[in-house]
């Protein structure tokens, strides 16, 4: 139980919790196999989302309501369903080629009764004892607590994401020409972060910075923000001040990470040191700000603005390539260019058994 508890505490997502439950069930109960079937309210099915042990290969298998022993356990008020080897009720679904086994099915339900999923284990011999039954129910209860924690964390993150998007869209509401800029830069931030192998925290910081990077422009007057021609020196100074205003506004958001503030403040710095507001150069510019600078300029170049027509994607990429080492970090530009190389088709995975 200590091993299981440590593993569950380290899990950062629902998928990691499910993988931990199946892996530890095989190891700690000495079972032949284990699977977790996640409940999906829409379309009201159980789906295998994690498995361990022998005969793995059922990932993605979906059971309609009432199909199989897992659903029988889920719909029962009992904490556990125990099927002994040789028992074959008509509602049991068996995978081809898999020998009959002793099986336990433990549903995971929230305190309010909401079904989260079903944890199942199986082995040929020895039969499961009452102690084994008790342990699997304990595993399921521990998994329920941890899954609820990860779900609440995900819901909080989604709420935060929605709030950040609303802030980004507030600026776009003033300027038709920039509509969609926030969403596009957030999407590009995700792609570039993955291409560069950023860890999950850094990707999250980059995405938050994308949402908030131009929030300071809310303080810029329409006469300047929407001006179709070149800005005067005084107007340019006011426009450039938006990064400092933006940083001050974002700093007021509780627990906002330093890296997000750096994106907001420094995404107009230049690799050659001629940018603003601090004239930073090279690697003195915060890394995520260097990444976002390329994203921001690319999206601006490829979409209509009051002062110029959009460039084609190849034209914008050529300009980024030409500015590598001057305006932009050369390594970031190289990674960004790979996003527009020929895509590789996705590999499909299919389940092949039943539970």
Automatic annotation (TrEMBL):
Q: Where is the HD-GYP domain?
A: 156-352
Origin superkingdom:
Bacteria
- In Swiss-Prot or TrEMBL terms, this protein is called HD domain-containing protein
For this protein, the record's SMART domains field holds: GAF, HDc
Lineage summary: Bacteria, Thermotogati, Deinococcota, Deinococci, Deinococcales
Recorded hits in Pfam families, A to Z, give: GAF_2 (PF13185), HD_5 (PF13487)
| SUPFAM superfamilies to which the protein is assigned, alphabetical | GAF domain-like (SSF55781), HD-domain/PDEase-like (SSF109604)
InterPro entries listed in its UniProt record: Cyclic_di-GMP/3'3'-cGAMP_PDE (IPR052020), GAF (IPR003018), GAF-like_dom_sf (IPR029016), HD/PDEase_dom (IPR003607), HD_GYP_dom (IPR037522), HDIG_dom (IPR006675)
């Amino acid at each position: 139980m200590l091993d299981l508890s440590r593993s569950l505490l380290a899990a950062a997502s629902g998928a990691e919790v499910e993988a931990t439950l199946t892996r530890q069930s095989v190891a700690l109960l000495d079972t032949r196999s284990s699977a977790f079937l996640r409940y999906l309210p829409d379309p009201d099915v159980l789906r295998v989302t994690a498995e361990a042990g022998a005969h793995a290969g059922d990932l993605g298998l979906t059971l309609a309501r009432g199909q199989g022993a897992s659903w029988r356990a889920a719909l029962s008020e009992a904490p556990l369903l125990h099927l002994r080897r040789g028992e074959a009720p008509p509602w049991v679904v068996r995978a081809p080629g898999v020998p009959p086994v002793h099986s336990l099915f433990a549903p995971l339900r929230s305190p309010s009764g909401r079904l989260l999923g079903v944890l199942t284990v199986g082995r040929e011999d020895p039969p499961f004892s009452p102690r084994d039954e008790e342990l699997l129910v304990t595993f399921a209860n521990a998994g329920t607590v941890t899954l609820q924690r990860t779900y609440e964390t995900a819901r909080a993150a989604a709420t935060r994401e929605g709030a950040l998007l609303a802030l980004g869209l507030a600026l776009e509401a003033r300027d038709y020409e920039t509509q969609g800029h926030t969403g596009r830069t957030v999407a590009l931030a995700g792609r570039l972060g993955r291409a560069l192998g950023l860890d999950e925290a850094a990707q999250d910081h980059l995405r938050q910075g994308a949402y908030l990077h131009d929030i300071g422009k809310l303080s810029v007057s329409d006469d300047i923000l929407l001006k179709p021609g070149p800005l005067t020196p005084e107007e340019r100074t006011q426009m450039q001040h938006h990064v400092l205003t933006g940083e001050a506004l974002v700093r007021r958001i509780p627990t906002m990470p330093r890296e997000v503030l750096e994106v907001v403040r420094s995404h107009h710095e230049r690799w050659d040191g001629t940018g603003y507001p601090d004239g930073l150069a090279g690697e003195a510019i915060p890394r995520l700000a260097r990444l976002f600078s390329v994203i921001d300029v690319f999206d601006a170049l490829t979409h209509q603005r009051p002062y110029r027509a959009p460039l084609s994607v190849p034209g914008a990429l050529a300009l980024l390539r030409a500015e590598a080492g001057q305006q932009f970090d050369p390594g970031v530009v190289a990674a960004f260019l790979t996003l527009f190389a020929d895509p590789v088709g996705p590999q499909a995975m299919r389940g092949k058994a039943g539970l």
